[in-house]
Amino acid sequence: MSIFPDQKGPNPNDPVNELNATGMFVDLHSYSRLVLWPWGYTYDTAPNDASLRMMSYKFAYYNGHDPQKSTELYPSTGSTDDWAYGELGVPGFCFEVGDSFHQSCSVFENDINPNNQQALLRAIKIARKPYRLAYGPEVTNLSLDTNPILPGQNLVVNYTANDTLYSSYESGIPSQNIISIRYSIDKPSWISGSNPTIIPINAQVPTYSGTFTASTTGLALGQHTLFVESVDQSGLWGPPTAIFFTIESTDPPVTDQYFYLPLIMNDL
Prior knowledge:
Helix content: 10-25%
Number of helices: 4
Strand order of the largest sheet: 1-4-2-3
Radius of gyration: 25 Å
CATH class of the largest domain: Mainly Beta
Distance between the termini: 94 Å
Number of strands: 11
CATH topology of the largest domain: Immunoglobulin-like
CATH superfamily of the largest domain: C2 domain
């Protein structure tokens, strides 16, 4: 309660205002390889069930778990994910990781840890506005043709905008076509002064790969950050993906100078 604002009314059926709600709560348990969302104490659906389901299915894409409403496992009262959502409106989830209570180190290091890291990274990336960002497509395969670059040289950026990164469990969730991308440098799009550039795409597919150029005119020497986001036909932007790039001087590097003098040897 010291971390998250209270964003939900006192009654269980009071919905969260999804437009501005913030925060994310994930409880890690073992075991069963499930991503569970509220409610767990009742078979009734939560008032924000559609968005909680959407988030769950997209987490499950990365960790390979089955996404389920919590009561599909069994009813449980007083769980922390129910409490986080029910009291504060923070989307709450339980990741049931692994196949046993005491997993071997090899399974943990090669499976549980890397796969759940990716799911948790997605949770971090949408935590600013989870109920909105969960619906948007993700930007993947972000790369640069050249890095570092010279002052004033354009960045050539390769990317994929993908609205299909979700679990197919019980038919999955709908995907939509990619409409636009936007990029900004050194500040994500929602920060004042970021001046993001929108590039229309209007692709007729939910997964689109492309290339764009970004001007670096006026940027100082050194490392910078490029943020890229995408939007589908629902009109909701997805979370940002970022990549570093460096601008280096055109001046040649300073090196040690060596002077060679001829050595004349005479017969003695």
